[in-house]
Structure formats: structure tokens, C-alpha cells
Amino acid sequence: MLNIYTVSGDHLARLPVDPAAAPADLSNAIWYDLINPTRDEEHFVEQCLGIMVPTRDEMKDIEPSARLYAEADAEFMTATVLSKMHEMDPIKVPVTFVLRGASLVTIRYAEPMPFVTFEALALRPGGRPLTSGEHVMAGLLDAFIDRIAQVLETTGDDLDAISREVFRSRAKGATRKSRNLEGLIEKIGNKGDMLTLVRESLITILRLTTFHQTRQPGTPRATRDIRQDFKVLQRDAQALADHAGFLSNKVNFLLDATLGLINLEQNQIIKIFSVAAVVFLPPTLVASIYGMNFQVMPELTWQFGYPLAILAMIASAILPYLLFKRRGWL
Hints:
By secondary structure, the protein is an alpha+beta fold. The chain contains eight helices and seven strands. It has helices at residues 39-49, 56-59, 64-67, 113-122, 133-167, 174-214, 224-290, 305-326; strands at 2-8, 11-15, 29-35, 68-71, 74-83, 91-100, 103-108. It has a seven-stranded mixed β-sheet, sandwiched between helices. Helix 4 (113-122) packs across helix 5 (133-167) and helix 7 packs antiparallel against helix 8.
């Protein structure tokens, strides 16, 4: 699908377009948005702007030289962004920004929420003035950074809740508590995966903004306001990357703490079995001795032999228990 936007007063307006037809007069168009484009749509944009639209495979390359480069008087910049973040099951997808003069081309094969949010705001009268493709790109990056900030805030709150559950669990019984902690490991792992994707996305945005700011400094295109906007975006992305790193450290701490508590609970269970074995070992020894079928055993014919054996077994069980209790092993 191809959407083309032009400036209409203080907001953007969507233009009707037929990719099968010859390019019309699109001199006022500042944003060409390609979503899962067909070859006809790509060819239409190439004819309008005189560029080569990168393929999907080229967008997936991770080498910086394949993601950030200049060609045919245009800048090609690919960032990794997150989609389906509202479902808390994000996937990373590449989005390519192509700046040629005052026009911007975006190529994507997903529908990240920031695109929807930005488009709704840009089409609304009375919003932020967008006079060039560079302004549109800055607005899109700002929408992505805002969305990532919301995700980090939610993730931080979730990690605080997990921390309280780990260190203030009211579960009764070692087995039940261990099961609760094992369930928390999965939650912590999900948050760790989320933060990994967020940091990767922020790093690509930082590289993109840095590359763009170093291209042709001092030209009329790089006005003071837009350059300041990109500096703000770069600072925001760096601050969020630092915060994501802090949350990642917290994830590692919670994971280590949870595993440690599980080990403690398991050791407690093994300790109980060990004490039980020691407590019942002396009575078993007494019972084994008097269970031997020797003909000459003085206590077998004694009137008080049976009560004495019972008392000996009880005493041999109680004495180790009291000794362990006194030494603080129980």
C-alpha cells in the first residue's frame, strides 16, 4: 500500500494515488509511506524521486554500511523498531527512511503503533506544523521514542511488583513458595526479552540520528530548529537507553535473587528429610537389634523387655531432636 501526504495549511493531507498510472504532479508531496509495497508501488516512488527503493532483504542487513548510507543525493537510514508492543509480545521490524530534498519515503512491512499515532496527529488541523520530509521523520522518531518511554515505564512498574512478590512473598510452605518463585522466573525472563529489544531499537535510532546530523552540516535544509529537534531526539534516546540498561541490571538481580531463594527453599526441604532420617535412625537400630532371631538374647525372656525396648526407641528419637533444636539446626 502506498500513501502520499502533502502539506495543507498547518497539517498534512493524504493524496489519492494510482501506482499503475504515470506519476502526476506531486511537487508538494513531502511523505511517501510504503506499507508492504508491491513492485508497481516501488517503481512509482522511484520514478517520482529518482531513487532506488531498498528491498526487504536489504533492509534486514545489520551492517551499518548497509543501513546508513547516501546515494543519488539521498539519505538511506534504516532503524529497527518494535511492533505489537501493546500486546506485550513485541517483534522487531526494520523501517527505512529515505530523505531526498524535502521529501521523505518510509518503507515498512509492519504496522507499528507510532505510525498510526503520528498519522492521526499529523492529519489533524492545529497540530505541529510539518513543512518537509525531515520534519515528518523527526515526528515519527519522536513518536517511537515516546512509545518506548511508555513501555519502559510499564516494565519498570512490573519489575517493582515482581520485586515485592519475590522478597515479600506470603506463601505458606516451602513447596508452594518454590512454585510461586518458579512462576516469577518466566515473568522476569519476559521482561528481560522486552528490554533487550528496546535497547536494540534505541541503539539503531541513536545511530540514525547521529548519521543524519553529520550529513551536509550547514546547508539550508538543516535549519536551526530541525537540527535542535534531532539533538533533543538523540538525547532522549540516549537517556532511555541508559534507563533500559538500569532495568536490565534489575532484571539480572531479580533473576539471581529468585534462583537463590529457590535454592534456599530446596535446601530447606532436603534439611528436613536429613533431620528426619537422623531422628529415626536410632529407633531403627534398636528395633533391628531386637528383631534378630538369636536363641540366646537375655531380654527376650525378661518380663519388662518389650516396654524397655519401646522406651529406648522413643528416647533415641527424642534425644537427637532436642540436640538439633538446641544447636539451632531446626
